[in-house]
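Retro notes, structure queue

What went well: the backlog is down to a handful. What didn't: a couple of records were mislabeled last round, so from now on we paste the full input next to the output in the thread. Example, using O-antigen ligase domain-containing protein from Stutzerimonas zhaodongensis:
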Amino acid sequence: MTNISSKFFFLPLAVLAIVLHFSVFGDSTHNPIGFKFLNEAYLAVSLGLSLLLILASTEEASREFRILMYYAFYSVFVFTVLPAIFSFYTFGQPITYGLIEERRILFTFGFVPLLLLAKHISTRQFEHALIYAALIAVILSWCFKFGLVPDLREEQTSWDRPDRSSIGPFLICFAYFYCIQVWAKGKSPINGEERHRKLYLLIAAVLLLTLVFATQTRQLIVLCLAFTLFSLRAKAIIWAASLCVLLSPLFFYPELLEVLGLNIEFYENSLDGDVEDGVRPHTIASVFSHLSLVNWLPSGSLSLMWQDGFIPYFGEHFFLSDIGIIGTLFRFGFLTFLLVPLTLFVYRWIARTINTEMEFTYAVMLAFFVIWPLNGLFEYTQPVICMLFVLHALRARHLRSKERVHERRTYSQLQSCY
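Corresponding output:
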């Protein structure tokens, strides 16, 4: 009865939680199937469950949940509360609007529903939930590419690419990371059980091809290739050869590219630097000009809900989300040189406190370092970081379950042994 309930009730719930955690249906100018306030509803549920765990103070909540609460509260304080305060003193924006602007950091609390659901399903089922959620994003991406899904966006800012869509891009990337890791090791990163390597390789190829042909976001393609190099090292040659075999029909029959909807002109223009019409260089120049004006003091970030945000100060083409670490400099000024290494140290300490196996985590983080100049690591990728911590917690939970009851030690003693 337990297996039936976990398969037909908790497994679909886990798929739904992962889909919501990675904002597959979240409202965005780049997501054609986003629904307003869906992300906020998921965050409200996560915060509610977190509050219940804190109030309960049970033994279950005092293990992985307790240490991950430190991660969530630290991240929210540093990357939500501080920018709100800085923007209040720099621009006069009410703190409430600053908190609303950086609310995406609240995805750090997403570990709560994920771990609660993971208690009711097996490790293999959790891995399947991750893959199923990613395949849902893949199917929706291709359906939108071929016009089978209507565009629900009220406005679109991708002027050069009217077919551009970002349907769960980080979910697809993370699932790709996981599949490549399983293919490389032949076993689950969570409990070490053997897995069907060829199946995960096939899924990884589907995910990568979706990013290339359907999503068509350059930084995500670079991200996946960087992870492949960091994770596989020598085996990356095998993966590259396999990819060449998969893409060989496109070389002999170039017309297939048009059938698949690949925007070749976009990639050709990107080599000439004409895709964004100088939007990113303009933003970077404005940031350093502003930092020089305020003597590198923290400035926080502004919300469009308050007097049109940055538009009165820097114009319509000013986006902190497009300039990665430079956007962090704008938010925190000279404090960036303290907060960035401190945050990396805190995250590493939390991860190693839960479980000392860091190979997969290091490969993922190094890959994100590669695209850090284009994508804010701490400000925009918390769902990925949170999922990494969830895998650490599941791995620690598995190791603890392998001990016999009479030999089971305290949590601190357990961690000192692994």
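Agreed that this is the format going forward. Reviewer comment attached to the example: Residues 2-152+163-417 form one domain.
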